[in-house]
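Before any further analysis, backbone shapes were mapped to integers, which produced the following:

***
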Amino acid sequence: MIYRNLEECVNDLEKHGHLVRIREEVDPHLEMAALHLKVFQAGGPALLFENVKGSKFRAVSNLFGTVERSKFIFRQTWDSVQDVIALRNDPVKAMKNPFKHVRTGLAARHALPMKQSAKPAEMQEVNISDLPLIKHWQGDGGAFVTLPQVYSEDPDKPGIMNSNLGMYRVQLSGNDYEMDKEVGIHYQIHRGIGIHQDRANRKGEPLKVSIFAGGPPAHTLSAVMPLPEGMSELTFAGLLSGRRFRYSYADGFCISNDADFVITGEIHQGETKPEGPFGDHLGYYSLTHPFPVMRVHKVYARPNAIFPFTVVGRPPQEDTAFGALIHELTGDAIKQEIPGVKEVHAVDAAGVHPLLFAIGSERYTPYQQVKQPAEILTIANRILGTGQLSLAKYLFMTAEENQPLDTHDVEGFLAYILERMDLKRDIHFYTNTTIDTLDYSGTGLNTGSKVIFAAVGEKKRELCREVPVQLYDLPSGFGGARLVMPGIVAIQGSAFSSYAQAQQEIDGLCEAINAQGALDSAPLIILCDDSEFMSATTNNFLWAAFTRSNPSHDIYGVNSFYEFKHWACDNVVIDARVKPHQAPPLIPDQTVEKNIERFFAEGGSLSGVHVKK
């Protein structure tokens, strides 16, 4: 079905059993987010909040909560959009079989944005304070827009075809923002809006920005799509929605004529205000930092506008489904961008950016048996220098040789690498470099380190499938050794106090392990605060081990040494204990959890949704 607006999508989802209306009054302070989290975790429907306390506008969440529901929303355009992206990646396909791709050409007619003479007459001027001011986590600095479409144009080449549409969180209230007059925009490095702001600064002009919310769901997805070179977000929005993106200008600001809400304003050079904290997708709060403040010009809303939102936290969350959807749409785009890549998996359970699994090729010496990583190290450098992949901290990479590999099989993939890795040769560090803005394991905002674990060739070791006896008798302060998965053991330590103290403690631990004799079957040891938690599930391990460690500072080794600047060891030890400088984890408010039980009780709007108590 082709949706002209968000309400048409909501009605269609309800008609087909994919959406539930919540008619009771709901408090936007924590309650709406808590309900969303419960329903998402239960694999439940989209939620339409019809009675938001303090606002006349409705709100909807969990639209993209499952890949199946998302594909239902885009059922009429899904296949043709995949074809268009595939052709952009490999245009020779169309030349080889032009008649097969006629439908793709027909779909492309929706790509070009359509300029209209004026914004819709029914759009009303409203205030920020009229919107559903949704606060998600108790420690959040205020209310945020979590599904915004932030629009800016290139000041050097203005116009819709030189624009950027990105999803950068927008803080509406709290901190030092003057209500109805200012909002905060949090954008990270490697973002298109940053290029536009830099160019506006050079021209001595403010950057005009429009923030859209709602409209056809394709517009929301377009704001987060990693698109092929030369394809704009707005052309993609037209393709995916099956309807051209309609826009106009008011007071020099671009207006999405199909959006439910539009906030217009300007970012002036050097003007920042504290933004955050905000419960983020790594499962921790991103803390308060200065980010650009936008001076609000005007705010518009449709008469029956619906405010879309999502809630982020420790994965998996709704943005997990977003990621799966994007991967399915873009298919093999990464193979086109980086020759030799067969697969790259940004591991969602680890917060996406901290951890990558990758498979490459080893074609450099086809006349020889592969003895050590060669081409895959070149490919690894390309991966860590490409777009959002460059924010990764840990990259585990191998070459597919004599058996099929799947990067989504976490245990099997890690076992394959750990069986083959030469710990004296195959560990490669990058220090003092960029990491994800939201990752507080590093040395400062955006700064930290990276490491590549590479492996090819024949098996070098058998991995332990129970805790080795060498790890039973540990020095004072260490204990509770538990098997995480083959070759990986978690050890519990005392609370982290300082890096100087950690160096002494872990040096003693490594010496004690070395004294017990070779421990080749356990190449990776995780030092943690709670080994029972660390080993309980694969997701616990992925989350805690890789979000709580900075490779350069938190990787140690049994019998470690340097040779010609290269670090080597017999066993890798990752210190994944919580550090004092790291952000606090997200913990649900128990009072709110108790309060929302009324919605699931008999007679409540969500009584048919079965959730964990």
Q: What stands out?
A: The first helix runs from residue 6 to 15. The radius of gyration is 25 Å.
